């Protein structure tokens, strides 16, 4: 099946659907200007100070580093928090919302991204499931209780030469221990999953009400395949948009070898033809 035929099939699914599930991995943010951490070199381009220490993304996204080197870890997360706050979501988010406006059951988003870009793009927070948590939410690093709170008051100042936080470390209001983002890290047994579990429960309740679901997956890679697997579990009408890893079994959906915005624009033009 050539690309034109795949586009025609995708458009027919979109027009027939009564609900849309948007599933998104890290590639969703690239067109908004967010860095691609693909491989150590991609990570070090964004954080040259960490290259000098030979620290990878997996090293930094680790609760052990938060415990042993909180200023270094918060330098990394503080930089990301500030970056995500400044980033303007690309036009593809608005396209997705517009397509779903005509669907009786509307849309939900399921994402492994912790950047809060769906909320910033005016998606309803009550219809977003963040399976790895959110950088905009904090928890106690010592898990003195299961309270979560907003990172709104955290205004990080980071020395980019050392990737260390120079402003005050965020603290747990209950016990005074260092606070951490409510993000699922590698080897993380202290992540408080309650918020994500509640989101996913609402998502599954919504899915049970949709009869003709279409899934649009954007920028979800194979390294951590959580999003890809969730998309496939909700086939057979999955539209997988990915410039590299676009393959999908024909009984589950179709793949478009495109970047996120490029693929969405292609579909949008076909929808309006």
TrEMBL record:
Coiled coil: none
Active site (catalytic residues): 132 (proton acceptor)
Name of the featured protein: protein acetyllysine N-acetyltransferase
Organism: Paraburkholderia diazotrophica
Deacetylase sirtuin-type domain boundaries: 1-273
NAD as UniProt keyword: yes
InterPro entries listed in its UniProt record: DHS-like_NAD/FAD-binding_dom, NAD-dep_sirtuin_deacylases, Sirtuin, Sirtuin_cat_small_dom_sf, Ssirtuin_cat_dom
Entry superkingdom: Bacteria
Record-listed E.C. numbers: 2.3.1.286
GO molecular function: histone deacetylase activity, NAD-dependent; metal ion binding; NAD+ binding
């Amino acid at each position: 099946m050539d690309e034109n035929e795949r586009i025609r099939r995708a458009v027919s699914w979109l027009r027939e659907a009564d609900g849309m599930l948007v599933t998104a991995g890290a590639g969703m943010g690239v067109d908004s200007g967010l860095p691609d951490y693909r491989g150590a070199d991609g990570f070090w381009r964004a954080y040259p100070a960490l290259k000098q220490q030979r620290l990878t993304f997996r090293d930094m996204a680790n609760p052990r580093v938060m415990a042993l080197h909180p200023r270094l870890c918060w330098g990394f997360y503080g930089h990301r928090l500030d970056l995500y706050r400044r980033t303007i979501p690309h036009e593809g988010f608005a396209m997705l919302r517009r397509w779903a406006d005509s669907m009786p059951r509307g849309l939900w988003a399921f994402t492994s991204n912790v950047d809060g870009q769906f909320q910033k793009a005016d998606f309803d927070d009550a219809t977003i499931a963040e399976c790895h948590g959110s950088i905009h939410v904090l928890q106690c690093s010592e898990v003195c209780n299961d309270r979560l709170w907003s990172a709104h008051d955290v205004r990080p100042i980071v020395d980019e030469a050392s990737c260390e936080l120079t402003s005050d470390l965020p603290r747990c209001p209950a016990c005074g221990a260092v606070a951490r983002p409510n993000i699922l890290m590698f080897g993380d047994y202290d992540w408080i999953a309650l918020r994500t579990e509640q989101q996913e429960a609402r998502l599954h309740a919504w899915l049970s009400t949709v009869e003709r679901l279409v899934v649009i997956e954007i920028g979800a890679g194979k390294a951590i395949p959580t999003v890809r697997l969730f998309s496939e579990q909700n086939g057979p009408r999955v539209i997988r948009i990915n410039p590299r890893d676009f393959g999908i079994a024909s009984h589950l959906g179709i793949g478009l070898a495109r970047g996120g915005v490029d693929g969405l624009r292609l579909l949008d033009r076909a929808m309006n033809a």
